[in-house]
Structures are given as structure tokens and as C-alpha cells.
Amino acid sequence: MKPFSSLRLFSSLGAAALVGFLLAVFTAQHGCASNCAANCPSTYVYIGDIDNYELANVVTGFAMSGAACPATGGIGCVGDEMTTTCTHFTITASMPGTCDFYVTFSDRPTEVVHLEYGPTENSNGSCCRGYPVLGATTYVIPDHASGGLIYPLNGTDGGASNVTVLTDGGLDAQGHTPDAGAARDAGADSPPADAK
């Protein structure tokens, strides 16, 4: 073999190796800068109207109870800030566990949406953050009492069993149920003492 031929062969192999290395570097996924979070589950629950209907005169208050509930200071009924001020709540867990979200209305009894969140899913190379919702991620508050109870739009079990109604009078200004019918039914309809 001639020296010039071996030099050409060596430089051709070197160039091919360099191209292969650069191709691998630029196409490989690198941590969260890649699309590793593309398939993460939802970590929040939307509870509200889905067609931007103003609920400010319908929803009169809310309360939360449970270890997974976020601090109440960061939760409120919000709208699109242009045409509405109160269309929905977004609940993001502070830890895995449960959170009961109480909603009081001007035209119907208090309803409770029972939410559950699981542990962070960041295995198999994903970079998911937060606590995933176990069950429905969207609950609709009907515009009017005739629309029925709060109902789920999605979820593995439909989520309808996750909504209950308090019949003794809703929440007072401090976010507690007055239990007007407690003597009649001995029901414990007030949020627990740890309600936020």
C-alpha cells in the first residue's frame, strides 16, 4: 500500500468518525432540555366553567381540607382578567394525598370535590415534576343550579363519585359549615378542623 493511499484512508475514517460523533451529540436527549417531560401526567385539577361564564354571582366561597391541599393564599376563583373575574379554580397539590375542595353557591347547596394526588413520576428517564392527579383533571361547575352537580370531564372512573353535596347549609363567611341540621341528622358536614 502506498503511503499516500493509507493517509487518505486514515483521514476518511477520521472524518467519518467525527461526523458520527457530532451526529450522536446533537441528536441525543439531554435531561430536561429534551422532550423527556412531554408525557408527564397533569399535576393540577381545573374546577370551573369551560366556556368563560362569569361565576362571581354563583360561587360565594370555597374551603379546602386535606394533607395534599395547597395553601389557601395561592388559591382563588380567577377569570380571563379581561371579560371575567371568576370562572375557575386550579388546584395543585403540595404533596401526595387527598384534598377535599368545598364550593359554596348562591343558588344551590355546597358541593365537595374529593381530589387525590400521587407521588412524583420521574422514573425511566422522565423529568416530570409535581404530584400527578389520580382521577379526573377537569370538573365543570354548571352555570346554573338547573345544570346539576359539579361533574368531571375526564378521568379513569369518570370521577362522578368524587363529588358530594352538603345539605345542611353550606359554608359561612369563615369557610365552615354551620350544621343547621345537625340535631336532625347528626351529620358532620363541617370541614374538618384542618381545613385551610
**What spatial order of strands do you see in the largest sheet?**
3-1-6-7
DSSP helix count? 2
What share of the residues does DSSP label as strand, in percent? 15-25%
* Subunit arrangement of the protein: single chain
* H and E string: HEEEEEEEEH
Shape: globular
How far the N terminus sits from the C terminus, by CA atoms, comes to: 84 Å
Description of the structure:
There is one protein chain. By secondary structure, the chain is α+β, with helices and mostly antiparallel strands. The chain has helices at 3-27, 182-185, and strands spanning 44-48, 59-65, 88-92, 97-105, 110-117, 138-140, 151-152, 163-166. The protein has 2 domains: 3-33; 44-185, no CATH class. It contains 2 helices and 8 strands, in the order αββββββββα. Strands 3-1-6-7 form a 4-stranded mixed sheet, with no helix packed on it. Strands 2-4-5-8 form a 4-stranded antiparallel sheet, with no helix packed on it. It starts with a helix and ends in an 11-residue tail after the last helix. Residues 24-32 and 177-191 have low confidence and may be disordered.
Task: Tell me the layout of helices and strands.
Elements: H1 3-27, E1 44-48, E2 59-65, E3 88-92, E4 97-105, E5 110-117, E6 138-140, E7 151-152, E8 163-166, H2 182-185
Parallel strand pairs: 1-6
Antiparallel strand pairs: 1-3, 2-4, 4-5, 5-8, 6-7
